[in-house]
Write a structure and sequence with these properties.
GO terms for molecular function: choline-phosphate cytidylyltransferase activity; phosphatidylcholine binding. By secondary structure, the protein is an alpha/beta fold. It is built from 13 helices and five strands.
Length: 373
């Protein structure tokens, strides 16, 4: 069998089963997941690149057997097909649900070609090679079938040994049929998945068409020409003018925001300055009153200085126990060097001459009186 011939590849690509999005409640998403560095290193192979399967008849497994679990060398082969244009999270979630349908699942993904897609659905954004490559790099995919058929035939199901077909349960009307999966459902091979609401390739294309001018200007800024964008010369100039106007608006908006921030900072600073000024003014007034007020330190200093000044200029009274003139010891005599007792006493100078006296103390007068006697 194909699964047995490529068992080594399947074992290396075996993934731990994770609960689907429908099995996980929003309240349980807070549970932490252990870190793991083990991951796939190669894209999923194409079906025509694998070795041919065993020629034994292929026996499908029932739904009960698939849910109960199959041997490792006999995984349940689930097929999911689609266009997968502009591959997004909705595609990845659908493939994840298909991979998690059973404990042991080998997921085969069929991608339709450009010819079939353009014929039955419409023009695609990505070509078939880009879409093939996008699907091969999805972690849930084990095998990719290129140029998948629009309607699944028994021959195709037998060739790829498909057990179940996974798709959302909404009837898919196309190619003149109300539901292209009707015969698959009747055969009991249909495994429904849930469609992710809020995102689809059509929604993405609608956004681009709705905001075409925005995306055209975006690509012009990145170096694309109007010719590459299939735009006219006038539109290119219009977009360039709009871009300049938007730049001016952004600059004005930035200046307004900066000016608001500056004014806010100035207000905060001014409030701080006013508060500090009030605090300092109160402190200054208190110090001023403490120094120059009615009972301030300056008044006490003046009173104290005035008392000291009066005390300095007023005469001192002699102490009561001070000795009298007679009791005082004689003052020392000082004579000029050129006057002595042997020399004749000079005649006294007139008082107005201003001459200095010879005798310095009263003792000298007493000595003179003794000599005369």
């Amino acid at each position: 069998m194909e699964a047995e011939s490529s068992s080594g590849l399947l074992l290396t690509r075996k993934r731990r089963r994770e609960p689907s999005a429908t099995e996980i409640d929003d309240g349980e998403r807070h549970v932490k997941i252990p870190r793991c560095t083990v991951g796939l290193k190669h894209p999923a192979p194409f079906a025509d690149e694998l070795e041919p399967a065993d020629m034994k008849p292929y026996e499908r497994v029932s739904m009960e057997e698939a849910k109960r679990g199959t041997p490792v060398n006999r995984p349940v082969r689930v097929y999911a097909d689609g266009i997968f244009d502009v591959f997004h999270s909705g595609h990845a979630r659908a493939l994840m649900q298909a991979k998690c349908l059973f404990p042991n699942t080998h997921l085969i993904v069929g991608v339709c070609s450009d010819d079939l897609t353009h014929k039955y659905k419409g023009f695609t954004v990505m070509n078939e090679d880009e879409r093939y490559d996008a699907v091969t790099h999805c972690r849930y995919v084990d095998e990719v079938v290129k140029n998948a058929p629009w309607t699944l035939t028994p021959e195709f199901l037998a060739k790829h040994r498909i057990d179940f077909v996974a798709h959302d349960d909404i009837p898919y009307s196309s190619a003149g049929s109300d539901d292209v999966y009707k015969h698959i459902k009747e055969a009991g091979m249909f495994a429904p998945t849930q469609r992710t609401e809020g995102i689809s390739t059509s929604d993405i294309i609608t956004r681009i068409v709705r905001d075409y001018d925005v995306y055209a200007r975006r690509n012009l800024q990145r170096g694309y020409t109007a010719k590459e964008l299939n735009g006219s010369f006038i539109n290119e100039k219009k977009y360039n003018l709009q871009e300049r106007v938007d730049k001016v608006k952004r600059k004005v908006r930035d200046v307004e925001e900066k000016s608001k921030e500056f004014v806010q900072k100035v207000e905060e600073k001014s409030i701080d300055l006013i508060q500090k000024w009030e605090e300092k003014s109160r402190e200054f007034i208190g110090n001023f009153l403490q120094m120059f007020g009615p009972e301030g330190a300056l008044k006490h200093m003046l009173k104290e200085g005035k008392g000291r000044m009066l005390q300095a200029i007023s005469p001192r009274h002699s102490p009561e126990n001070s000795p009298s003139r007679e009791e005082r010891s004689p003052s020392p005599t000082f004579r000029l060097p050129f006057f002595n007792k042997t020399s004749p006493s000079p005649s006294p100078l007139p008082h107005h001459s201003g001459a200095r006296g010879y005798l310095i103390s009263e003792d000298d007068d007493d000595d003179d009186e003794d000599e005369e006697n």
